[in-house]
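tool_call: predict_structure(chain=1)
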Amino acid sequence: MSTEYFKQAAILGTFVEAVRETGRACGETLMQKAAYVMKELLDVPLSDEFRIHYDGPFSYHLQGRLASLEADDFLRVSPREMGVTYDTGARFHQLQERYPKTIALARHSIRSRKARITRRQAARTTGDSAVRHTAAPRRIDSDTGREAHRNQSARPASRGKGSDRGN
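tool_result:
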């Protein structure tokens, strides 16, 4: 096994640990989505290739890696009502001791992104327009009560050829 395998195992284990500290379950769907976000948005060094799947981004490579991490006792899988949840395994502390810089960089990336998201959400609730992104105000026609589109006036739906409205 390569150094990259162990570094990425440390990152994934740290994520599991952070989720479990909140008291929440950390299932495979969450792991798949979180790994995708960490890789694509937070520039955390994960080597997995993702594809579109039913529940969001999915990586067969990550699925296999999670099984390997369980076999190596870096992660532990526990059953729950709907599926499983991951916990850190008995050997995870070895990764923490061996790769503290890798873990610190990943935590920093995740926390800084989380802080930006939290500030944005707070701005939405307080109405701070400097941070909040809003759509253009809607124009409603007072006669019909319908929304006008862009700079056009509100008008009734088309009853052109092929329409079954009004038949």
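agent: DSSP finds five helices and six strands in the chain. Proceeding to next step.
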